[in-house]
Amino acid sequence: MAEATTDGGLLLVVAVLLPFVAMLLGIAAGGRNLQRIAFFAMPLGMAVAVAIFFSWLHEPGSVVYQLGGWAPPLGIALRADGAAVSMLLAVAFVVCGIGVFARGDFDTPRGGAESRAPFSYWLLLLAVWGSLNLVFVSGDLFTLYIALELLTFAGVPLVCLTGSGETLRAALRYLLFALSGSVLYLLGAVLLFGGYGTLDIPLLADRVAAEPIAWTALALMTVGLAAKTALFPLHLWLPPAHGGAPAAASAVLSALVIKGSWFLVVRLWFDAMPGVVTMPSAQLLGALGAGAILFGNALALRQLRLKMLVAYSTVAQIGYLFLMFPLAFDAAAGRIADGLAYSGGLMHAVSHATAKSAMFMAAGSIYSALGHDRIADLAGVARALPISVFAFGLGGISLVGLPPAGGFLAKWWLLSAAVESAQWWWALVLLAGGLLTAAYLFAVLSRALLRPAAPLTLRAPVARSRELATLALALASVLLGLVAFVDLRALGAA
Amino acid sequence: MTIETLIALVACGLVGIGLFGLIAQPHPLRKLVAFNVMGSGVFILFGALARRGAAAGLPADPVPQALLITAIVVAFAATAMTVALLLRLIEATGSASLASVPPDGDGEAR
């Protein structure tokens, strides 16, 4: 059956172009106007994402746009299936929340001098957003490569906005990891093109067979993407990069950027080569995820600073994102299949994006108010910054997986999939990870709720809008679990 | 052995050398060179595949060539960005070493 551009197809192009057009206009218009343009683009982008969602609801399959009217394999198609639509919505929402928060750090007030860091920040925020949208809607592996590289180029400078030696070093390490990952991905794509003569995902899914060239390509691409996603044991670059960046940038990196390369692994395993995947390979990927959960959580417990704790918690949460692969493996059919585990993985990605951005933003508010973020000296901060600490706790609840949080629903689905497929060992990992997460959350909150020995003096007040943006993201993460009562199809396989 | 197979094998050798260098060399500039060696291997492999995959009568399949140009531009941009970061790092710290004191706040160091 030949696919054609669907009614809402043009919206996909708009979703990709809007952030980039805003970015280019911003470069032309200069620092002060760039921020206005970014704030104009954010609600607009959110509206586009919602419009794509409704357009997708009316389609039996994906929303499709064929560039220039050329059908693959000759042309390139953009497609948005259920997974892409939910990620588009989540990213638009998180970008808006982070944008409101970032105005505190990277504001260029009327009459104030323009400086380099705010200018770079708003440009990079828009660039990350556009690249992520391209990752979600791309229909062929080469466009995905370009999107992935754009995401790297936009994400790395966010690490070193302050320009200090340590952050530059962290950024350089991140860049080298990311570059090795992308060249491995490209090598896999080249092999697939050599073997099957197409890079279009549905066409490839038809032609690909379980044979050495497909195995090699899938292995190379998965390793490359794992390095970019910071999957254990390739996570070494992440904590210094995410922990050292300004809070508004860490939130972007931790909540959004790593999801791009993870989403690409999902595309490869579930959409492009579901029949190539073997049970041992899925188990291996799951084992790396389990390693990330246990190792990341254990290291998070040992951190002395709040931002580093949140960064190591990201390492652990990435592990959950990779547990979906063994759980989705249908042993009877010998292939990976959509189902509960798939929905669980996506749900976890969305709820982690909202929860982790809120936690980084809360940590940033605490840092700017106290002038430090040493966990041992947090006593009294819950009284001084109640909204931020509350948001931090709510985000933590979602990470731990208490109902009704999105993290609960995600873990519930993953657990159910583990029970259904009789893979009890992953259920143990899921539960142990939740307990460890609760332990470091408790370590932070119990200190924040203490009565301070001496009255706490805040170095700088925290703007109410920043705290409310943080709270909005945390609430979204906690209420996400209610989606179970609304419409399961919205996050399930389309 | 056809010439395409020979070229493809050489390309695979380049990828291997590059990957080894990327992992084993400690200096970032050497890592960057290794990244470029590896990238060149991938590009040459793509070229060899284009030659092999050509339809009858054509000298080569044009699609890989179009993709190659794009990939080369991306690799060039990546190289430029790495060099820029490296120069800033040397400016800020006086050394190009990646192995470092962990950033302050890294709990393991204390």
Give the gist of this structure.
The complex is a heterodimer of chains A (494) and B (110). Chain A is 72% helix and 2% strand.
Rg over CA atoms of chain B: 19 Å
Query: What value does the average pLDDT of chain A take?
Result: 86
Q: In percent, how much strand structure appears in the residues of chain B?
A: under 5%
- Helical content class of chain A: over 70%
- Would you report the number of β strands of chain B? 0
- Helix percent of chain B reads over 70%
Identify low-pLDDT runs of chain B. 103-110
Order of helices and strands of chain A: HHEEHHHHHHHHHHEEHHHHHHH
Average residue pLDDT of chain B: 83
Number of helices of chain B: 3
Q: How many E-type strands of chain A? A: 4
Order of helices and strands of chain B: HHH
Shape of chain A: globular
Structural class of chain A: mainly alpha
What gross morphology of chain B would you assign? elongated
